[in-house]
Amino acid sequence: MERVFEALASTPRRQILAYLNAGELTAGEIGARFDFSKPALSGHLRVLEQAGLIEREKRGQFVYVRLVPDRLANTVFAWAAEVCPVAGPLKRERRGGGAR
């Protein structure tokens, strides 16, 4: 969970995720939308990949990047369940303790 939130702490990484929300892009297409070096782009993509938010696939001479949408949704849900005041009763109910 920490890796996801660390990845989301960066504005450029959030922008990359927003671009990928419309569909996969090549690394070059992503890089063309930003004013930073190829090593910086590679670093941002590495952080997103290590957090499980994106997947990269090499096809021919291009690297295609796509979202892993369930990873972000599941992480945010898990975090919300931890901080939500009703999370305790929901967790007990899920374990079979029933609603109280």
Automatic annotation (TrEMBL):
Keyword DNA-binding attached: yes
Gene Ontology molecular-function annotations: DNA binding; DNA-binding transcription factor activity
InterPro entries in alphabetical order: ArsR-like_HTH, HTH_ArsR_DNA-bd_dom, HTH_MetalResp_TranReg, WH-like_DNA-bd_sf, WH_DNA-bd_sf
Domain of life per record: Bacteria
All residue ranges annotated as the HTH arsR-type domain in the record: 1-87
Keywords noted in UniProt: DNA-binding, Transcription, Transcription regulation
Pfam families tied to this protein: HTH_5
Protein name: Winged helix-turn-helix transcriptional regulator
